[in-house]
Fold this protein.
Amino acid sequence: MKILVAKPGLDGHDRGAKVVAQALRDAGVEVVYTGLKRTPEEIVQEAIQEDVDVIGLSILSGAHVPLSRRVLEGLRREGAAEIRVVVGGTIPPRDVEELSRLGVARVFPMGTPLPEIVAAFTTRGRAGDPQEAKTS
Amino acid sequence: MREVRAHAGFPIKPVYGPEDTTGVDFERDIGRPGAYPFTRGIHGHMYRERLFTMRQYVGFGTPAETNARFKYLMAHGQDALNVAFDLPTQLGLDSDDPRAAGEVGRVGMAVDTLADMEEAFAGIPLDRVSVSLTINGMAAPITAMYYAVAEKQGVAADRVVTTPQNDILKEFVARGTWIYPVEPSLRLVGDLIEFSARRYPRSNPVSVCGYHIREAGCTTAQEMAYGLAIAAAYVELMLARGMAVDEFAPRISFNFTAWGKIFEEVAKFRAGRRLYARMMRERFGATSPKSWMFRSLIGGGGSAFTAQEPENNIVRGAYIALAAALSGAQTIALPTYDEAYTIPSPKAQLLALRTMQICAEEAGAADTVDPLAGSYYVEALTGEMERQILAELEAVERMGGIVEAIRRGSLQAEVARQAYLYEQKLVSGEVPKVAVNCHVGEGAAGADREVELYALDPRVGEAQVARLGRIRRERDGAAVARALGRLGDAARGTAGLMEPILEAVEAYATLGEVCQAMKDVFGEYKEPVKF
């Protein structure tokens, strides 16, 4: 399992992204972190180059719907739709369903316990599994 | 017996007595309020003469919408403003820039030109209201716009009271609205401080923030230590430019948080005030007592709030207000209970304002100065916090000093490490959080759906772009080009940047154009990604 933890858009809050990245790394997941303010297109390219299984988007600005859509569209355009996308951050309940409809494999809204996020990447039926595409 | 630790890490005893304060010298370490070293507060009578100002952080959508919310809060007794700008504005991108797509007006108000600032403050007398501008990388042009609006309102320069945050160093550590590399960023900070000190004597051209670094995960002692180290870096910057310390230091202010353990927070501020006073007097040779004063906005700390059972955050907010008042804040701003979900609703904003008013008017927190002074616990804790802060300051020195530690990313790495440690303590329950890791109620998960969510109207972006297009067409293009050319020339040389920036914004150059003119010369910051 290899994941790209990514910060799309202009949001500069990276506490959550870094905490999740460290927790996943400690759990044996291979993690690459993009740093701040990446465009969706840059994230798609980096995901392909790094040959990751999952992109984890961290978005606290409220712009999660348009940014996630652009990442998913970019992956399809590049023929890399097998890379799953999960999203964490300030995601209000009404947007969880919207993100799932767009094709986000799993959403981790604010308040998700860290062990639950880690478990999603380390146990069977992990984030990439479509029947696991649900809210947590 | 249960073991208890401060957020700074040291153990807290079950009982304190006179034996815990034996090293304390009253005159040297505590003194009188309003007198060096200001441990008890920077004013002799504090809130009995002037209550803390209440300054909610507000801004969303278009300048017109923000203007209406300002007036709503002022009608309910808020006496000062604290402006939130959207991310494109904070990063110097115009609303029609492709990189701004989806972000216009989302987390603050959009500003593209002087016309937006004119609209935001229409009908608000800038000679009577003090205004904080939460802006950093773009502090120089946004503050220039503010000065221009004040001038258009006919307000004399010495009546303008504004506090641009203008603390770029903490943006590199937390919050992330950096634009240029460290050195030119510091040059802009210095230019705004110098220009304001000479022309706008009541402005507070830098607000040094420990707040955001704590929000990013550091401890209480680190929050104060990093804030003091950043303040010292700005003092050194201004001294190197040839200003005398007492020319600018009286207008330095601070922005810190106060969530967590009430007594530890109070001790943090008491220790911080005396460390700052000593630093300014002994290390930098300031002779004006105003240069020794740690004037602070104490904000809430949204990281203390939870998505679970969000109404509990109203209670947390009340304790934060109490901690801030007991800490001797000059200004208080509280996060709103719905902040984990959304841009605050008017109801949530009003509740936060009412919380501060109840704390001050009903609960007696403002009745007498530094009421916890002389408590064995609080005096011992103040001493312990001072030792912890000094140890953290030494750690910064070992990283090569604050600027170098930030340039290399080692401070960022330390803050991320602390954030991870804290998260692990939440998981283990070592740090209790009600309704999160203890006293978890049944059915709590559904309660969050009752929060009123702010929906960004997509027309906000369209309206802002249309308005920007109109201004681009109507303005004197030649004057804009001339002013931007002059700004580029100044940036290539060593001249002050505020005059050409002011000229450009008064010609209705856009924020994006002003930002780009300097980016062409300065380049962009490249983040050292470490975790």
